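For consistency, the fold was encoded as tokens, which produced the following:
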Amino acid sequence: MFLLRSPDDAGGDAAPVQTRPAAYTVRDIGDGSSVNAVLASREDDSLALNEGELFEGHNAQIANADETIVFALRDSDLTEDCSTAVWGQELAAAVEAAGCTQVGRATYVSDTYFAVTAVFNLADVEASRALAATMVDPAEAAEGEGADAAVRGFVLAPSGADPFDRLGEGYSASDAIVSGHYLILVWVQPTSSESVDDRVSLAGPLVALSNVNDPLLRRVGWVGDGDTDEETDGADTTGTTDTTGTTDGAGATGAGGAGTTGTN
């Protein structure tokens, strides 16, 4: 596990930690979904993201269906300088190559978890898939299709203040969800976790947090002039595994596409 701290003390202006999750899974809801079809290209969805769209309304507080997990928004940032939202020179280059024009990041806290979300505005759905593949940890990537794409780096939280100064010290998991020309990343760590060996299923909070895609579902209606067929509370995908090959449970938001193997 790579973890690099800023020399600054944790606090309101603390720099984010350069780290990555213990488990990372790419989830693709497939070309047949309305999100991937209607929002396939930024040429068809040219209106820029805005802060109100990303961080207000439903995304100010995100919960699962029975509200047993409730995340409250804490920090947020929307920038056109996409390279500042990630660490690792190779990943920054991959973000640029994907045609990134915006990335919105946020931190969320609940009673038992803290989390990071990111929404990348990219050129098209293939750029989204390519960027998701680059964030597989190259040290753990299995040989085979896609392994050569992995580069060193990951998303930076928009804040390094407590508890995000401990991000990566405990066991955490992340899903990268291909959503048309957007790539959504959700990343969760239990507040009580003190070691990457404290393995627990984080399927529940990851699925809950994937409801951060609400603005994209609304865009499907605007751009496609109709309703989306996507669910907003985590319809299961199949074949999703975490870094050590054990199944981590439920899948990402959307019509049931197949997930891909994650690595740490």
Remarks:
- The longest strand covers residues 70-79.
